[in-house]
Backbone:
């Protein structure tokens, strides 16, 4: 049996873990599996090793790990592979690391569906955490451009770590209607900071991401199965 483990960054926000759990449950339901858990890189338990050990105690032998990360920043490139290695050694599970959520066409369509509820003249501000990696920030900007292509709405990007509320206020100037789309999986302290920002603040993406997580799981499970056959396991 192949289990699903979602791996979030983790948050000090009291509602964050429950939101990740709901997303994980929805994705598992989409692919029809009974064994699944959420794990977190920091701030929240269980970590990946803890989740892997819990599944191993239930007789699970392998799992696909889907990082709930949007860009290929440091966490995706370094922290996630390290966590997978530690979890494999600790639990004995065979773990297949799937791609993260990404900023590709699937994500653009998730965000575009949110804009179906928008006023025809509404300006869309995509609100992301921001990264020290310029390539990660550029990927978010390209995502915003694609959302504009799909919806016909003007778009811009604000980063929580590079201006945050002030950036949103500045970008909202000149528009009668503004909608902020958070590039957040679940509730977060950086998202709470927008409570008094101009415009409509959408909730985090949450279970809207279930289809992407399910697709990542299925690709990971197929790749893992082919590798096992190749190795004669």
Residues:
């Amino acid at each position: 049996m192949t289990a699903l483990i979602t791996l979030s960054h983790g948050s000090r926000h009291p509602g964050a873990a429950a939101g990740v759990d709901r997303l994980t449950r929805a994705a598992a339901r989409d692919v029809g599996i009974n064994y699944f858990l959420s794990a977190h890189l920091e701030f929240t338990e269980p970590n990946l090793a803890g989740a892997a050990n819990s599944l191993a105690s239930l007789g699970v032998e392998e799992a696909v790990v889907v990082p709930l990360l949007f860009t290929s920043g440091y966490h995706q490139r370094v922290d996630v592979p390290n966590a997978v290695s530690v979890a494999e050694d600790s639990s004995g599970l065979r773990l297949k690391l799937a791609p993260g959520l990404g900023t590709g066409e699937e994500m653009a369509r998730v965000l575009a569906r949110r804009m179906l509820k928008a006023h025809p003249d509404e300006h869309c501000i995509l609100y992301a955490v921001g990264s020290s990696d310029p390539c990660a920030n550029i990927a978010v900007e390209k995502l915003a451009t694609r959302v504009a292509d799909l919806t016909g709405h003007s778009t811009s990007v604000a980063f929580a770590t590079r201006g945050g509320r002030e950036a949103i206020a500045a970008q909202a100037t000149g528009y009668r209607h503004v909608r902020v789309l958070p590039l957040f999986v679940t509730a977060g302290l950086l998202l709470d900071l927008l409570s008094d920002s101009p415009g409509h603040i959408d909730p985090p993406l949450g279970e809207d991401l279930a289809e992407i997580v399910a697709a990542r799981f299925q690709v990971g499970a197929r790749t893992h199965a082919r590798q096992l056959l190749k190795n004669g396991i």
